[in-house]
Specification:
The chain is built from eleven helices and 14 strands. By secondary structure, it is of the alpha/beta class. The strands form three sheets. It has a six-stranded mixed sheet with strand order 6-7-8-3-9-10, sandwiched between helices. Strands 2-1-4-5 form a four-stranded antiparallel sheet, covered by helices on one side. The two termini are 45 Å apart. The model has no long low-confidence stretch (mean pLDDT 91).
């Protein structure tokens, strides 16, 4: 008999005033699975995370976390088994790296010796051991995010929740955080995460849920989402003159799906559609050919318009 899901949401809804921020969400996170929530700003990702982590009561639907129904009476038992890395930095600026861990460990009832042992283990895991005595104000953004990840792991959580774990980090710092997340995944940790970095989400996540306006608009394995919604390749054609406009109009009538956004025509190609005739039509145009990505899926489903 399969293990019950670590998170089981059915018809989950959250309303603030007249705004339905999360609308009838149904999803589950299996034990040992890494599930990613993707979506534009205001899609409802962080609100969903807040409901799962006991910080916002659902308005409707049912929600079970770690086998317990979400209710005020069960919050302490659920929180004791959660590890949460919030989007906002929340480290204690008056404490050192090590003290941020050992003091926080006391909230989970860890004794002094166990707290020191876990802090040492996690500082090594997040490559912060040499910074143990450093004050928080002297840390880089990447170091702070790694310390927040270490803090989220102090209680050896049954569910690790990461809300935008690499926001604001440079590529090197992002890479190190994702390496640590992949190591946790290999060790069997169950992870629920949100991120704006589409291609990075494809690496650790077994499944992705794409949200928009509080609803699930697509769900599946990363490669399956790309194949279903975009295809195998994308050709971007850059338009700058009337002659090019006429050629682009002919390309837009081809057997592939196309989309015009400003001065760029996107051709979404399935296997076998990249024919010699198409490249002959592209010969005099400025274009780029590349593989289809999750970002293409995201923009196809949620649109190219900027969201604040």
């Amino acid at each position: 008999m399969p293990a019950p899901p670590v998170v089981d949401a059915r018809g989950l809804t959250k309303v603030y005033g007249s705004r339905r921020v999360v609308d009838d969400l149904t999803f589950a996170v299996a034990s040992g699975e890494t599930l990613g929530l993707l979506g534009p700003n205001g899609a409802g990702k962080t609100t969903t995370i807040k409901m799962v982590t006991c910080f916002a009561p659902p308005t409707g639907g049912t929600l079970e976390v770690l086998g317990l129904p979400m209710a005020p009476a069960t919050h302490p038992a659920i929180k004791a088994r959660l590890g949460i890395m919030q989007q906002e930095e929340s480290l204690d600026p008056d404490l050192s790296v090590e003290k941020n861990l050992t003091v926080y460990a006391s909230y989970f009832g860890l004794g002094r010796a166990e707290a020191v042992r876990r802090a040492e283990e996690l500082m090594r895991f997040t490559e912060l051991a040499e910074r143990r005595a450093e004050q928080i104000r002297n840390l880089s953004g990447g170091m702070k995010r790694r310390l927040m990840l270490a803090r989220a792991l102090l209680n050896d959580p049954a569910l690790l929740v990461l809300d935008e774990p690499t926001t604001g980090l440079d590529p090197q710092a992002r890479r190190l955080v994702w390496e640590r997340v992949r190591a946790l995944k290999r060790g069997g940790t169950t992870i629920l995460l949100t991120t704006h970095y589409m291609e990075e989400a494809a690496q650790p996540c077994d499944r992705l849920i794409i949200m928009d306006e509080g609803r699930i608009i697509a769900e599946g394995r990363p490669a399956d989402l790309v194949a279903a919604h975009v295809g195998s390749e994308v050709v971007e054609v850059y338009v700058s003159g009337d002659a090019e406009e006429r050629a682009v109009a002919r390309l837009a009538d081809g057997p592939w799906r196309s989309e015009r956004v400003g001065d760029v025509l996107y051709l979404y190609l399935r296997d076998g559609q990249a024919s010699p005739a198409m490249f002959s039509a592209l010969e005099a145009l400025d274009f780029a050919r590349r593989r289809a990505t999750l970002e293409d899926v995201f923009l196809t489903l949620t649109g190219h318009a900027l969201r604040d």
